[in-house]
Design brief:
Elements: H1 5-8, H2 13-19, E1 62-67, E2 86-89, E3 95-97, E4 102-108, E5 123-127, E6 133-137, E7 139-144, E8 151-152, E9 157-161, E10 171-178, E11 191-192, E12 220-222
Antiparallel strand pairs: 1-2, 1-12, 2-10, 3-9, 4-5, 4-8, 5-6, 6-10, 7-9, 10-11
The chain binds zinc ion (ZN).
Zinc ion binds near residues 20, 67, 75, 85 and 87.
Protein backbone atom coordinates (compact mmCIF):
# COMPACT_ATOMS: atom_id res chain seq x y z
CA UNK A 1 0.00 0.00 0.00
CA UNK A 2 1.26 3.42 -0.87
CA UNK A 3 -0.51 6.72 -0.92
CA UNK A 4 -0.41 8.18 -4.40
CA UNK A 5 1.39 11.42 -5.03
CA UNK A 6 -1.87 13.16 -5.73
CA UNK A 7 -3.17 12.09 -2.37
CA UNK A 8 -0.08 13.44 -0.69
CA UNK A 9 -1.07 16.82 -2.07
CA UNK A 10 -4.47 16.67 -0.50
CA UNK A 11 -4.80 19.14 2.31
CA UNK A 12 -7.35 19.76 4.96
CA UNK A 13 -11.06 20.05 5.46
CA UNK A 14 -13.02 21.87 2.79
CA UNK A 15 -10.12 22.16 0.40
CA UNK A 16 -9.33 18.49 0.71
CA UNK A 17 -12.90 17.56 0.07
CA UNK A 18 -13.16 19.69 -3.00
CA UNK A 19 -9.84 18.50 -4.31
CA UNK A 20 -10.20 14.81 -3.60
CA UNK A 21 -8.96 12.69 -6.41
CA UNK A 22 -9.69 9.42 -8.04
CA UNK A 23 -7.00 6.82 -8.24
CA UNK A 24 -5.74 6.21 -11.76
CA UNK A 25 -6.91 2.94 -13.20
CA UNK A 26 -4.49 0.20 -12.32
CA UNK A 27 -2.65 2.30 -9.77
CA UNK A 28 -3.17 -0.42 -7.21
CA UNK A 29 -4.33 -3.97 -7.65
CA UNK A 30 -4.52 -4.70 -3.95
CA UNK A 31 -7.82 -5.97 -2.60
CA UNK A 32 -7.95 -4.54 0.89
CA UNK A 33 -9.70 -6.38 3.70
CA UNK A 34 -12.47 -3.79 3.85
CA UNK A 35 -14.02 -4.93 7.08
CA UNK A 36 -10.82 -4.23 8.96
CA UNK A 37 -10.61 -0.56 8.10
CA UNK A 38 -11.96 1.80 10.65
CA UNK A 39 -14.18 3.68 10.91
CA UNK A 40 -16.34 1.93 8.33
CA UNK A 41 -16.21 -1.40 10.12
CA UNK A 42 -17.78 0.12 13.20
CA UNK A 43 -19.92 2.74 11.48
CA UNK A 44 -23.65 2.88 11.96
CA UNK A 45 -25.43 3.90 8.79
CA UNK A 46 -28.79 5.68 9.12
CA UNK A 47 -31.88 3.63 8.36
CA UNK A 48 -32.37 3.98 4.65
CA UNK A 49 -36.17 4.11 4.84
CA UNK A 50 -36.07 7.27 6.93
CA UNK A 51 -32.90 8.75 5.48
CA UNK A 52 -32.83 12.51 5.17
CA UNK A 53 -31.03 12.18 1.84
CA UNK A 54 -31.86 11.31 -1.76
CA UNK A 55 -29.27 10.57 -4.43
CA UNK A 56 -27.74 13.80 -5.72
CA UNK A 57 -28.98 13.31 -9.28
CA UNK A 58 -32.42 13.36 -10.93
CA UNK A 59 -35.05 10.64 -10.64
CA UNK A 60 -34.65 8.07 -13.40
CA UNK A 61 -30.90 8.59 -13.71
CA UNK A 62 -28.36 5.90 -12.82
CA UNK A 63 -24.70 6.49 -11.98
CA UNK A 64 -21.79 4.30 -10.97
CA UNK A 65 -20.10 4.76 -7.59
CA UNK A 66 -16.42 4.76 -8.38
CA UNK A 67 -15.09 5.46 -4.91
CA UNK A 68 -17.15 4.55 -1.88
CA UNK A 69 -16.53 4.97 1.82
CA UNK A 70 -13.35 4.32 3.79
CA UNK A 71 -10.81 3.85 1.05
CA UNK A 72 -7.35 3.68 2.64
CA UNK A 73 -5.70 3.76 -0.78
CA UNK A 74 -7.34 6.92 -1.98
CA UNK A 75 -8.93 10.10 -0.70
CA UNK A 76 -11.97 8.83 1.20
CA UNK A 77 -10.35 8.14 4.52
CA UNK A 78 -9.74 9.55 7.95
CA UNK A 79 -6.54 11.21 6.89
CA UNK A 80 -8.54 13.62 4.77
CA UNK A 81 -11.62 13.58 7.00
CA UNK A 82 -13.59 12.18 4.07
CA UNK A 83 -14.17 8.56 5.16
CA UNK A 84 -17.84 8.68 4.23
CA UNK A 85 -17.68 10.54 0.92
CA UNK A 86 -18.91 9.10 -2.38
CA UNK A 87 -17.60 9.65 -5.92
CA UNK A 88 -20.29 9.26 -8.57
CA UNK A 89 -18.96 8.87 -12.11
CA UNK A 90 -20.86 11.08 -14.53
CA UNK A 91 -20.13 12.97 -17.74
CA UNK A 92 -19.28 16.66 -17.49
CA UNK A 93 -22.48 18.70 -17.50
CA UNK A 94 -24.64 16.12 -15.72
CA UNK A 95 -27.39 17.56 -13.53
CA UNK A 96 -26.77 17.47 -9.79
CA UNK A 97 -29.69 17.90 -7.41
CA UNK A 98 -29.78 18.76 -3.72
CA UNK A 99 -29.68 15.54 -1.70
CA UNK A 100 -31.37 17.29 1.21
CA UNK A 101 -33.10 20.61 1.81
CA UNK A 102 -31.02 23.48 3.14
CA UNK A 103 -29.47 26.83 2.42
CA UNK A 104 -26.67 27.47 -0.04
CA UNK A 105 -23.67 28.27 2.12
CA UNK A 106 -20.94 28.63 -0.49
CA UNK A 107 -20.41 28.28 -4.23
CA UNK A 108 -17.39 28.46 -6.53
CA UNK A 109 -17.50 27.69 -10.23
CA UNK A 110 -15.01 29.85 -12.12
CA UNK A 111 -12.32 27.22 -12.71
CA UNK A 112 -11.97 25.32 -15.98
CA UNK A 113 -12.33 21.55 -16.12
CA UNK A 114 -9.35 19.24 -16.55
CA UNK A 115 -6.72 21.44 -14.92
CA UNK A 116 -6.38 18.89 -12.13
CA UNK A 117 -4.97 21.17 -9.53
CA UNK A 118 -6.13 20.95 -5.96
CA UNK A 119 -6.92 24.62 -5.56
CA UNK A 120 -8.94 24.78 -8.78
CA UNK A 121 -11.97 22.83 -7.67
CA UNK A 122 -15.50 24.16 -8.12
CA UNK A 123 -18.21 23.31 -5.63
CA UNK A 124 -21.56 24.03 -4.01
CA UNK A 125 -21.97 23.63 -0.25
CA UNK A 126 -25.43 23.36 1.33
CA UNK A 127 -26.03 24.01 5.05
CA UNK A 128 -28.74 21.83 6.64
CA UNK A 129 -31.02 22.79 9.50
CA UNK A 130 -29.10 20.58 11.94
CA UNK A 131 -25.83 22.40 11.19
CA UNK A 132 -24.33 19.73 8.92
CA UNK A 133 -23.09 20.51 5.44
CA UNK A 134 -23.40 18.67 2.14
CA UNK A 135 -20.54 19.20 -0.25
CA UNK A 136 -20.89 18.78 -4.01
CA UNK A 137 -17.44 18.92 -5.60
CA UNK A 138 -15.53 19.00 -8.92
CA UNK A 139 -18.29 20.97 -10.70
CA UNK A 140 -17.84 22.19 -14.25
CA UNK A 141 -16.98 25.80 -15.07
CA UNK A 142 -20.11 27.89 -14.53
CA UNK A 143 -21.72 24.81 -13.02
CA UNK A 144 -23.30 26.35 -9.92
CA UNK A 145 -27.03 26.85 -10.56
CA UNK A 146 -27.76 28.39 -7.16
CA UNK A 147 -26.46 31.34 -5.20
CA UNK A 148 -25.26 31.82 -1.65
CA UNK A 149 -28.16 32.24 0.76
CA UNK A 150 -30.72 30.58 -1.49
CA UNK A 151 -33.04 27.94 0.01
CA UNK A 152 -33.14 24.61 -1.80
CA UNK A 153 -35.31 21.51 -1.50
CA UNK A 154 -34.33 17.88 -1.99
CA UNK A 155 -34.30 16.99 -5.66
CA UNK A 156 -33.85 20.56 -6.87
CA UNK A 157 -31.16 21.01 -9.54
CA UNK A 158 -28.30 22.92 -7.96
CA UNK A 159 -25.30 22.29 -10.19
CA UNK A 160 -23.72 20.69 -13.23
CA UNK A 161 -20.97 18.16 -12.72
CA UNK A 162 -17.46 18.50 -14.05
CA UNK A 163 -13.84 17.58 -13.64
CA UNK A 164 -12.40 20.58 -11.84
CA UNK A 165 -9.91 20.45 -9.00
CA UNK A 166 -7.74 17.48 -8.14
CA UNK A 167 -9.64 14.89 -10.11
CA UNK A 168 -8.66 12.19 -12.59
CA UNK A 169 -11.96 11.91 -14.37
CA UNK A 170 -15.39 13.52 -14.51
CA UNK A 171 -17.30 12.78 -11.32
CA UNK A 172 -19.24 14.26 -8.43
CA UNK A 173 -17.69 14.14 -4.97
CA UNK A 174 -20.45 14.13 -2.36
CA UNK A 175 -20.03 14.12 1.39
CA UNK A 176 -21.80 15.32 4.50
CA UNK A 177 -19.70 16.97 7.19
CA UNK A 178 -20.39 17.75 10.82
CA UNK A 179 -18.25 20.30 12.64
CA UNK A 180 -17.77 20.82 16.39
CA UNK A 181 -19.85 23.67 17.75
CA UNK A 182 -18.30 26.99 16.83
CA UNK A 183 -16.04 25.50 14.15
CA UNK A 184 -16.35 26.50 10.51
CA UNK A 185 -16.41 24.01 7.69
CA UNK A 186 -12.79 24.87 6.97
CA UNK A 187 -11.74 23.44 10.32
CA UNK A 188 -9.75 20.24 10.41
CA UNK A 189 -12.05 19.11 13.20
CA UNK A 190 -15.03 18.62 10.89
CA UNK A 191 -15.80 14.96 10.20
CA UNK A 192 -17.65 13.24 7.41
CA UNK A 193 -20.61 11.12 8.53
CA UNK A 194 -22.24 7.95 7.14
CA UNK A 195 -25.03 8.67 4.67
CA UNK A 196 -27.74 6.52 3.09
CA UNK A 197 -30.23 7.54 0.42
CA UNK A 198 -33.94 6.78 0.64
CA UNK A 199 -34.61 6.68 -3.11
CA UNK A 200 -32.50 3.78 -4.33
CA UNK A 201 -31.99 0.07 -3.73
CA UNK A 202 -30.86 -1.26 -0.35
CA UNK A 203 -27.36 -0.34 0.84
CA UNK A 204 -27.24 -0.96 4.60
CA UNK A 205 -23.48 -0.32 4.76
CA UNK A 206 -23.49 2.55 2.31
CA UNK A 207 -23.19 2.62 -1.47
CA UNK A 208 -20.57 0.25 -2.85
CA UNK A 209 -17.70 1.68 -4.87
CA UNK A 210 -14.88 -0.02 -6.66
CA UNK A 211 -12.29 -1.35 -4.18
CA UNK A 212 -9.46 0.05 -6.30
CA UNK A 213 -11.47 3.01 -7.59
CA UNK A 214 -11.34 1.64 -11.12
CA UNK A 215 -13.45 3.29 -13.78
CA UNK A 216 -16.79 1.55 -13.90
CA UNK A 217 -15.71 -0.75 -11.11
CA UNK A 218 -18.30 0.10 -8.47
CA UNK A 219 -22.01 -0.52 -8.29
CA UNK A 220 -24.71 1.42 -10.10
CA UNK A 221 -27.60 3.08 -8.33
CA UNK A 222 -30.75 4.46 -9.91
CA UNK A 223 -32.47 7.47 -8.40
CA UNK A 224 -36.09 6.42 -7.79
CA UNK A 225 -39.15 8.64 -7.17
CA UNK A 226 -39.40 9.87 -3.59
CA UNK A 227 -41.54 11.88 -1.18
CA UNK A 228 -40.00 15.27 -0.56
CA UNK A 229 -40.49 14.95 3.18
CA UNK A 230 -38.70 11.92 4.59
CA UNK A 231 -40.82 9.54 6.70
CA UNK A 232 -40.74 10.18 10.43
CA UNK A 233 -37.87 8.47 12.15
CA UNK A 234 -38.89 6.03 14.84
CA UNK A 235 -39.07 7.64 18.22
CA UNK A 236 -38.93 11.18 16.85
ZN1 LIG B 1 -14.23 11.98 -3.71
Amino acid sequence: MRPSLTIAFCVTALVAAMGSSLLAEGETSAEPPWDLFEPCASATYPDQATSLYVLPYPVGVTHNVRQGNCNPFNSHNQRFKEDFAYDFEMPIGSTIVAARAGEVWLTRDHFRDDQNRLEQGNFVVILHDDGSYAMYGHLTEGGALVEKGEAVVAGQPIARSGNSGLSKGPHLHFSVKVCPEGESLRSRECESVPVTFRNTRPHPKGLIGSPASKIGGGQRYEALPFEETPPEQEGS
